[in-house]
Amino acid sequence: MNRGNGTDTVIPGNSQRATVLLVDDQPGKLLTYEAILSELGENLVMARSAREALAVLLKTDVALVLIDVCMPELDGFELATIIREHPRFQKTPLIFVSAVQITELDRLRGYEAGAVDYVPVPVVPELLRAKVKVFLELHRTSQELERLNGELEERVAKRTAELESVATRLLESEQRRSLALVAGRMGSWERNLLTGEYTWDEGQYGIYGVDPIKFRPSVEAVQQLIHSDDLDSVVEAEEQAARSGKSFYAEFRLRGPDGTTRWCIAGGAVTLDSSGKPIRLTGVTHDITDRKVLEHALLHQKDELEQLVEARTKEREVALAQLFEAQKLDTIGQLTGGVAHDFNNLLMVIMGSLELLRKRLTPMDPRVHRLLENAMQGADRGTALTQRLLAFARRQELRPQSIDIPTLIGGMRELLERAIGPGIQLYVNIPDRVDLVQADANQLELAILNLAVNSRDAMPLGGSLTLTAVEPGGRPVPPSLPLGEYVCIEIADTGMGMDEETLQRAREPFFTTKGPGKGTGLGLSMVHGLAAQSGGGMNIVSCLGSGTQVQVFLPKALQSRDDWTQENLCVEEAEPASPPQSYCVLLVDDDLLVRTGTAAMLEDLGHVVIEAESGAQALAHVKQGTRIDVVITDHAMPGMTGLALMQALKTDHPELPVILASGFAEIADDERVVGLPRLTKPFRQNALAAAISAAAEARYGTARSGHHRIV
Of 675, 661, 685, 691, nearest to 341 (Cα)? Predict the structure, then answer.
């Protein structure tokens, strides 16, 4: 990574790195952006004003510009307008970074000035890195397309030069033949129109490929040497010249005695007697076989070139279309995941506060109880909504396990029947010995329930809903499905079906045909996200008026059915939970509302809470010698993430248990979190209590269950 500003010499990176220009009048913010983006390994160039930014742009190849909106001299909008007016930077992506509330008018002004996106402050590091990475990949892809286009142009130029060379050789051949004619090297002939006798020179015999001693040219003998397909046109041209006295011209093929075919051009002039009667036709014959061969080669090369250009054009169009779709889906996924993450934090505050409020109002008025229950149900529905959002964005943490489909469907059959209502007949055609699948059981139940509700809404006058689970067999599979063994769960209805346009958009998030207030548009997109995140895929088969079949392909589990059955028979009932112990908990979260709500739940459980708003502040508490039993930390925090804090604590205090609280799936694949206690946001008080108890017992052991740690 190279650093520079408007007054320093900019050191260009190697060809594999792209240059990102960071424009902000506050050095602290520039350093923050540098810290966030340093993981990308790109060239980061910083400018503290619009003037410095323009100076950098004029001498550096910049792939992406991040601009602060509020700056002295020229603000971000004015700088973006100046950049866009320069021909070099009309396609350079510009991203605005703003700490003030952005209105729709501000956004419109920004997009009119040339911006491609907005990033609010405080900046979410993962979101900023994701956005920058998307546009840098787009920049690199555009450069690659330009390089390929340049190669195509070079090939076209080379092929054009070859064609011009062929044309030049043809011209030279014509010139040589003209010189040969002058020198007597061409075949000349004369025909007496009164007697029909021919007079040939040596060159003429050579062109026709006959022996001058043995062959006597006559009308019949000459016509036998001309290709039968060309004979009529040659005879007609000669007769026309003899009648009219005009010049003679014919292009024809000759069949030599050795079986070879040669192309010739014959031209001549008529000689008239004193009365004006044509008496003689005199001319020359030109062998143009070589020219014809070159013409055919030229036509073949031309066809090849046209096919090459057409193929490369189609490849470029396909590549651009694929790039656009990938960019669109990735951008939607990143934004959706970010929204769900923020929503999870809000739900944490709401659910925790409601749980504590319900405890403190006991006994309560029945009306208050109903209101609290309604609020909790609303929070639960919000949690389900965030799970759908995260499933679409593939950022939801799944807990895959071996699932017996008949058992799962049997357990939720009553729920399905209530969900679809009495007007729809439910049929379940699933063999008892169908292979186990590997997936998250809770999310799979939610997916099946969503599909059943969609089918119910598509059958307002009643119908039937059929659930099957078989090996894919002859069913068409999604094109993106990896090679492997799968089980296909199919939900088929007899509803109104979908037209082609609706079918194409069915997987899009927030797309719904149910009307305002009747659907979120996240059902199918959530199922699609779950299937993809589980290593499978989804297919939708539908036709207007003929119902819909949704096929969910899930990978087969590695565990055998016999092992699974034995494992479930041996499951013992959990022992009653031991009385809660009191511990000193270090709580780390940058969100004040989330931190305050979680602290309240911890204190309600009898624990002592030390709050920290950042990883650095948490480390300071530990270094001060404060006796701490358990650490609970958020992951997505500015400056130092929860994983980074965990690594720092593990180095100096390996005995201190750390519970990581997050709603994102990305960290689930990180080898650093293997075996680490986890809390998935939003969580309730009982989950919090269980996590603390497990972490503390892992540190102190069950033999010290009475250990009481209060600082």
Answer: 661
- Rounded to an integer, what distance in angstroms lies between the CA atom of residue 569 and that of residue 139? 57
Q: How far apart are the C-alpha atoms of 501 and 634, rounded to whole Å?
A: 43
- Find out whether 437 and 555 touch, Cβ atoms under 8 Å: yes
Name 283's Cβ contacts closer than 8 Å, sequence gap at least 6: 188, 189, 190, 248, 266, 267, 268, 269
Instruction: Return the pLDDT at 579.
Output: 46
**Statement: residue 225 has pLDDT above 50:** yes
Strands (DSSP E) along 472-615, which ranges?
A: 486-493, 537-542, 548-555, 584-588, 608-612
d(CA 117, CA 455): 38
619 and 645 Cβ atoms separated by less than 8 Å: yes
Consecutive H or E run containing 177: helix 125-182
The residues of the chain that CATH labels 3.40.50.2300 are 19-123, 584-704
Count the alpha carbons within 13 Å of 139 in the hemisphere toward its beta carbon: 23
The answer regarding whether domain 398-569 maps to CATH 3.20.20.150 reads no
- Cα(344)–Cα(361) distance, integer angstroms: 26
User: Are the CB atoms for 20 and 62 separated by under 8 Å?
Assistant: yes
Q: Please report how the helices 366-393 and 523-533 are oriented relative to each other, as an axis angle in degrees rounded to 10.
A: 50
Q: Which pLDDT belongs to residue 707?
A: 40
Residue 553 DSSP SS3: strand
Distances (CA, A) of 162 to 17, 77, 368, 480: 38, 52, 89, 43
Fold (topology level) of 19-123: Rossmann fold (3.40.50)
What secondary structure letter does DSSP report for 23? E
Over residues 547-572, the pLDDT tens digits come to: 888 888 888 888 777 777 766 665 44
466: pLDDT strictly greater than 90: yes
Q: Does domain 184-287 have CATH number 1.10.760.10?
A: no
**Cβ contact 94:80 at 8 Å:** yes
| CATH number 3.40.50.2300 given to 584-704 | yes
Report whether 59 contacts 18 (CB < 8 A). no
Q: pLDDT tens across 567-577, in order? A: 666 544 434 44
pLDDT tens, position by position, 382-421: 766 666 566 555 555 567 888 888 888 888 888 788 888 8
State the Rg of the chain over Cα: 41
Report pTM: 0.39
- Please give the C-alpha separations between residue 30 and each of 16, 23, 48, 304, in angstroms, as whole numbers: 23, 8, 8, 54
Residue 634 has pLDDT above 60, yes or no: yes
Give ∠ CA 333-334-337 in degrees, rounded to 5.
Answer: 80
The mean per-residue pLDDT over the stretch 575-583 comes to: 57
If you average pLDDT over every residue of the chain, what do you get? 78
Confidence of residue 711 (pLDDT cuts 50, 70, 90): very low
344-to-508, 593, 617, 662 alpha-carbon distances in Å: 22, 12, 24, 9
Q: Which residues, at least 6 apart from 456, have a Cβ–Cβ distance to it below 8 Å?
A: 419, 420, 421, 424, 465
DSSP string, 126-158: HHHHHHHHHHHHHHHHHHHHHHHHHHHHHHHHH
Q: What is the pLDDT of residue 567?
A: 66
SS (H, E, C) 228-262: HHHHHHHHHHHHHHHHHCCCEEEEEEEECCCCCEE
Which segments of the chain belong to CATH 3.30.450.20? Answer: 184-287
Model pLDDT, residue 397: 59
Residue 576: predicted pLDDT: 40
- The CA distance from 695 to 711, in Å, is 18
Residues of the chain with CATH 3.30.565.10: 398-569
* Per-residue tokens: 329: 């889906």
